[in-house]
Amino acid sequence: MDLQNFSETLVQNISDAIVVSDANGIIKFWNSGAERIFGFSSAEAVGQSLDIIIPPNLRKRHWDGYSETMETGKTKYGAGDLLSVPAIRKDGQRISTQFSILGLSDSSGSLTAVAAIMRDVTEDYEERKELLKSLAKCKKALLDKSGSS
C-alpha cells in the first residue's frame, strides 16, 4: 500500500461526492463521486457556482446559510452532523442528499472555502417516505376499528 498517495487516491476516487467551494460559492474541486452523483464532469463543474446542484426554490436559504458560515466561520454541520437537502442533477432530476461540511481556513485562521462530503440517499428517502405513509394508514385503520367497536 502506497501511503504517500493514499489521501489523494481516497479523495479523488471515493464514491461519495467531495465538492470544495470558495467563499463566493464557486466550485474549486469536484471528485469522481460528484461526477457520478450529479452528472457533471469536473471540467464542467469547476469554476461554476454551487447553483448548478441547488434547486432554484432553495437557493436563497442556501446562500443565506452559506454567507453566515463564511462570515462567522461556524456551522452546525461540521461535527459529524448531517444535513439532508434536495439537490439537482445535470439532467434536472431532483435527488435527496445528506452531507457534512468542513471549513477550510487560511494561515491566519480565516475561513476561505468549504468542503462538502455528500451522498445520494434518494432511494432510502423514498423508502422511508413510503413506510411512514403505510404506518399512518395502519394507525388510522386501528383507530377507526377501535372507535367502531
3D structure, described in words:
The chain has a single domain, classed as Beta-Lactamase (2-Layer Sandwich). With 149 residues, the protein is α+β, with helices and mostly antiparallel strands. The protein has a five-stranded antiparallel sheet, sandwiched between helices. Helices cover 40% and strands 26% of the residues. The chain has helices at 6-13, 32-38, 42-45, 59-72, 122-147; strands at 17-22, 27-30, 83-88, 94-105, 111-120.
Short synopsis of the structure:
With 149 residues, the chain is of the alpha+beta class.
Please mark out the parts with pLDDT under 50 across 5 or more consecutive residues, or reply none. none
The largest beta-sheet arranges its strands as 2-1-5-4-3
Give the overall form.
elongated
Provide the structure class. alpha+beta
- Overall pLDDT score: 89
Number of domains: 1
Largest sheet: 5 strands, antiparallel
**Number of E-state strands:** 5
Q: What is the H-and-E element order?
A: HEEHHHEEEH
Rg over C-alpha atoms, rounded to the nearest angstrom:
19 Å
Percent of residues in helices comes to 25-40%
Portion of residues in beta strands equals 25-35%
Q: What's the number of helices? A: 5
CATH fold-level topology: Beta-Lactamase
CATH superfamily: PAS domain
CATH architecture: 2-Layer Sandwich
Distance between the termini: 69 Å
> What is the CATH class?
Alpha Beta
